[in-house]
Write the structure tokens for this entry.
Amino acid sequence: WKSDIVFAVTAVVIFLCLIPVWLAYYPIIMSYDFHRQVNEAYKGLEWFYPLQPIAHTWLIRLFLQIGTAIGSYEAGMACMAVFQMVLYALVMGYATSMIWRMTAKKWPVVVTTLFLALFPYNTVLVVCTTKDTLFTILFTLFFLLFLERNYFSNGKKKILMNILLVAEGCLMMQFRNNAVYAVAVFMLLLLILRPKKEKLGILILGICLVLGETGMRNVIQTAIGTRLEAPKIEAYSVPIQQFARVAYYHGEELEAQDNMPLWQTGGIAGKICAERSLGCLLCAAGGYHQGRGKCFGIYREFQAVFERLATSGQTVSERVPGCFSGTDQRILVLG
């Protein structure tokens, strides 16, 4: 078998196997996070919010515009699904071709092709609007290009592969906001594990990837014109849960100063409250304790507030100054 033939045949087979899945979920699976992104895409570029990757929101907007041009938003979303199917088929065809080049055995190619074409988790996710679909495809391509660079490139081809790897890596990282950290750790591990003669090249490659991602993200935001900044609530999720656990299991041991209102505490709590989002309430109430039928909190006074809110339906902003300013969010306790 020739590697080019393996690539072409497996890519076509994978794509053909995706068509029934696409028809079953036509036009596309509108998954988590999509509801927020599609609203931003409707409103315009200046409404793009960095909580989700801006590049992905722009892609959704692009296919909405395509849908408008050809007759309907539904057709545009169907085109987005087909775009992801084609990209997936091409990259996975490249992957099976790489397996053939590295093993020279037919059975791994056949097994890999069947897995990529028929395994439901793969095929369903391909026709899903989540950013993870495109990120996973681009991450696979990044890894394949890395193998191409290391094992099948020399001289000028290796220089070209370095440039291509940096460009593709920077693009890949635009589809997950935290991808740059994973890439940095990956390059650090390579720097430790690879032979000494390769260390300088890996160091330069890693620096180019990290700086390139930052530069590309800034260029995209400047070109789009968004002035919104990503919230830090999700970054505080771990300490929030730690605070809540301490309060629940050791609440009676807390000192008086730990019972002061959340918006007066400063530090992380104050920053969370300044975000004016659910994070301040989660920090205050510690979330909903499953199976206990009540809210619990790091600050005991908030427990009574939440219980009253749960029964009265009063707006949070009326009871908790500094949080949800100008909104009408309500608390509902389940159980």
In short: The CA atoms of residues 67 and 76 lie 4 Å apart. The radius of gyration is 25 Å. Residues 261-310, 312-335 have pLDDT under 50 and may be disordered. The first helix runs from residue 3 to 24.
